[in-house]
Amino acid sequence: MYRVFEALDELVTIVEEARGVPMTSGCVVPRGDVLELLDEIRDAIPGELDDAQDVLDQRDELIGKAEHEAEQGVSKARSEAERVLQEARARAERIVADARAEAERAVAAGREEYEDLVGRAHAEAERMLEAGRAAYERSVEEGRAEQARLVTQTEVAKAARSESARIIDEAQAEADRLREECDAYVDGKLAEFEDLLSHTLRTVGKGRTRLRGGGRPAGAIAAPFDYQA
């Protein structure tokens, strides 16, 4: 094809440099040179056309092959994407199931601990109240007995009444102190249970945060939930 272009350029040069015919637009060109160039063009065109056709055929073949490979690549990529998506979905479902099971276990443990603490607190409160009531009644009886004994003595009757009132007041104060200690004990146990529930809720919150985070690389294993009583 390059030789055809070169021959055409030479023909153009010959015509441009040809001597003009006076009073006309024609010119005088060397016939032999022009015919020689035309023969070269005529001989070169079929081979050049064949080469061009070969190039076109190869181009179509290459384009078809590239399209086929592209289709295979797209199909493979789609299959791989579907596989990765299915694995991610299965992994997410396992994480959700593990988180739900861990949350249920933590709640059950917290409920059991709460019921145990409340039961022990009630029992301790009853014991302390009973002890305070017995101490109070004993002190009152002792005060009354002391009061009765002192009343029989005219010189110390007033002191006996005062001492009796003091003993009764001390007994009442002791009963109040025991009641306050019982209330403080129950409040402390409830505070411990409140801390346990707060920790359980934080554990569940961490599990949900990990679940919502996503983006975990393929093959990564979710860290187990950390539960501490």
Description:
The chain is mainly α. The chain has one domain (2-17, 29-212). 85% of the residues lie in helices and 2% in strands. The chain has three helices and two strands, in the order αββαα. α2 runs antiparallel to α3 (157-213). The two termini are 89 Å apart.
The overall pLDDT average reads 79
Total number of helical segments? 3
The overall strand count is: 2
Q: How are the strands of the biggest sheet laid out side by side? A: 1-2
How many domains? The number is 1
Radius of gyration: 55 Å
Keywords: Coiled coil
Protein name: DivIVA domain-containing protein
Coiled coil: 78-109, 161-188
Organism: Gandjariella thermophila
Write a brief caption for the model:
The chain is mainly α and 229 residues long. The protein is 85% helix and 2% strand. It has a two-stranded antiparallel ribbon.
Keywords:
single chain; mainly alpha
Topology:
Elements: H1 2-17, E1 19-20, E2 27-28, H2 31-151, H3 157-213
Antiparallel strand pairs: 1-2
